[in-house]
Specification:
The protein is of the alpha/beta class. It contains 20 helices and 25 strands. The structure holds fructose -6-phosphate.
């Protein structure tokens, strides 16, 4: 996700911004930019008194275009952009300016009412220079200042109060030469002070080289940062007190936000991830979904008579979950295939097949090639990916972004949840467009979808208890993960997580399939992990659990609160909140992620960079 940094104080600002941005590179980005206040510019200079440079690509690209830096520039803002609205081009890179060119703004997040505001501004005669939602915010604040005068703080407050979406913004203006104004609705912001300087950033590492006295900006606050001084207000304009905390962590630890590893941090981010995946697509209380951002016409979706989902590893597992949802909600036949098999097996497809390529990175060679193969048969290809402008996204007819933010741990966690939710949203959208579901049923499902983040949080909060369980099993060598229905892909994903980070043998099976072979391997010492949450096949799964228990396996069951049968069948029980059956993988898998994480930690492996694995697999 985007990185933000701002500085006002006695020192030359540009090196401070570049250093701060480099500390945020771990968040992932595809373009960057800076704006400095030029103290020598005349009030009416054509560039509005601001010096701005932006570049697509890495920070090194930005550094190459840094020339004629205004002498004595002591205030500025910088940004690393992770594209959402509009590709990673120079025009879309931040900072963005208003019509006067005297206001510059950087932003992390998404404006939900983007299309509406864009229409209004164009109608009011504003010429937009980019495809971004961010530029719109710069215009709104700038126009408020021109129309009503007053302070920059007040203009930012009014606009932030009205605007819908997730926003952390930082604004500077040539008419307010020593202050930076920042505001937050959702995404994080931190500020820092020294005796004679003020700093702001999207994360603590951006500030740590200058100060360890950090103010975490609370949600729905506006702050004004001046040299040595910071003032905060709520969105009603009431001044509020800010209390600093002293950071004692190292820089590396700060990038992990206090967590031991990126994987643990990413597991904890999952409630927010799901909110971000849903933003702009469905609002609480609504019976309708909007997937306009996917850019595939409703007619094209009505024309589909079959769906094929392609992916590898974790992405294949989220595709398996989606198959259950698509068939159940739309009555379209749906197959799910490993990308590496699909392209070589002469699949049956034509122009009425909807092919969904699922890939976190969007760069997995197997999935890219499998989707190209489908394209040759005129199938419509939708990419479901986390990386804007990735190869898969560029080649596809339409793209549904998962908006999970960069994932650094090699083992996929938050991107699996984001894929499940994005794919199920797509399944519901297909049902809506094709009229296979009553609006009130869609409404109920959407309402449940909005409850997922809180329910996932309840599982994340059990991390400590799950750690104690995992530690008890750290010396076991054989784990079987079993489930039925969507519990089956959940079991496969649980087994994959455990094997890839802890190097113990862990296999996933459809619970009903055990007695057709794998049960021969069950003996005392084997651990069977059963996914037994609410489902119409729950009792059948529990019978399969009894079969392995009778042959000496130790059973760890993931079940819902109050499930007596599961409690009786379990040697160890982990309870998770109940949800609609087809959404359950997004909750149940979190318990399995935490179990795998803590078991690997107990075995002393490197969870963020497991042996033999790469985050992006660009070879066949
Ligand atoms: C497992 C994992 C891999 C990836 C697979 C596909 O934790 O990360 O199995 O899921 O390599 O990668 P993407 O989704 O980038 O296509």
């Amino acid at each position: 996700m985007c990185g933000i940094v701002g500085y006002t104080g006695p020192d030359e600002v540009l090196p401070i911004l570049i250093e701060g941005l480099s500390r945020l590179e771990y968040r992932g980005y595809d373009s960057s930019g800076v704006a400095l206040l030029d103290p020598d510019a005349s009030g009416d200079s054509s560039d509005g008194g601001l010096w701005i440079r932006r570049r697509p690509g890495k920070l090194s690209e930005l550094k190459r275009v840094i020339d004629d830096v205004p002498a004595h520039a002591r205030l500025g803002i910088g940004h690393t952009r992770w594209a959402t609205h509009g590709g990673p081009t120079e025009a879309n890179a931040h900072p963005h300016t208003d019509e006067t060119g005297r206001l510059a703004l950087v932003h992390n997040g998404i404006v939900e009412t983007f299309a509406e505001i864009r229409r209004e501004l164009i109608g009011a005669g504003v010429t937009l220079k980019s495809e971004t939602d961010t530029e719109l915010v710069a215009h709104l604040i700038g126009r408020h200042l021109v129309a009503h005068g007053g302070s920059l703080v007040e203009a930012v407050r009014i606009v932030m109060k009205d605007i819908e979406g997730a926003l952390a913004i930082v604004v500077m203006h040539a008419d307010f030469p020593d202050s930076i104004v920042a505001a937050r609705k959702g995404p994080p912001l931190v500020a820092g002070l020294t005796a004679d300087a003020g700093l702001v950033g999207s994360d603590i590492p951006a500030l740590l080289a200058h100060t360890r006295d950090i103010y975490v900006v609370e949600d729905e606050r506006v702050v004004e940062i001046r040299p040595g001084r910071i003032t905060a207000w709520d969105l009603e304009g009431n001044e509020v007190v800010l209390t600093p905390k002293t950071i004692t962590w190292s820089l590396e630890a700060a990038q992990k936000d206090g967590y031991e590893d990126f994987m643990l941090k990413e597991i904890h981010e999952q409630p927010a991830t799901i909110r971000d995946t849903l933003v702009g697509r469905t609002e609480p209380g609504s019976h309708r979904l909007h997937l306009d951002d996917m850019r595939l016409s409703e007619d094209a979706l009505r024309n589909v008579d079959r769906v094929s989902i392609l992916g590898c590893g974790t992405s294949f597992h989220s595709g398996m979950v989606a198959k259950y949802a698509i068939e159940h909600w739309t009555r379209l036949p749906c197959e799910v295939d490993l990308s590496s098999e699909y392209r070589y097996r002469d699949p049956v497809l034509d122009a009425r097949t909807l092919v969904i390529g699922v890939s976190q990175s969007g760069e997995t060679a197997d999935t890219i090639e499998a989707c190209k193969h489908a394209g040759h048969w005129d199938a419509k290809v939708v990419a479901v990916t986390n990386v804007v402008d990735s190869s898969l996204a560029r080649d596809a007819d339409a793209v549904l972004y998962t908006h999970a933010g960069p994932e650094i741990g090699v083992a996929a966690t938050k991107t699996f949840l984001a894929q499940v939710v994005a794919l199920e949203t797509l399944a519901l959208y297909l049902a809506q467009v094709r009229g296979t579901m009553k609006p009130e049923v869609t409404g109920e499902l959407l309402a449940e979808l909005h409850l997922l983040p809180d329910k996932i949080q309840q599982v994340v909060d059990q991390s400590d208890e799950i750690r104690k369980i995992a530690e008890r099993f750290a010396d076991r060598r054989d784990f079987f993960f079993i489930g039925r229905g969507v519990g089956y892909p959940t079991a496969l994903e649980g087994a994959l997580k455990l094997k890839e980070i802890s190097y113990v043998r862990a296999e996933g099976f459809a619970a009903g399939e055990l007695k057709h072979g794998p049960i021969a391997l069950i003996e005392p010492g084997v651990v069977a992990v059963g996914v037994c949450t609410k489902s119409f096949v729950r009792l059948k799964t529990l019978s399969n659990v009894q079969e392995v228990k009778a042959r000496g396996a130790t059973t760890i069951l993931i079940a819902n609160e109050g499930d007596r049968e599961a409690a009786e069948a379990a040697d160890v029980l982990i309870t998770v909140p109940t949800t609609e059956e087809l959404f359950a993988p997004a909750i149940d898998v979190v318990a399995l992620q935490l179990f795998s994480y803590w078991l690997a930690k107990a075995r002393g492996t490197d969870v963020d960079m497991p042996r033999n694995l790469a985050k992006t697999v660009t070879v066949e």
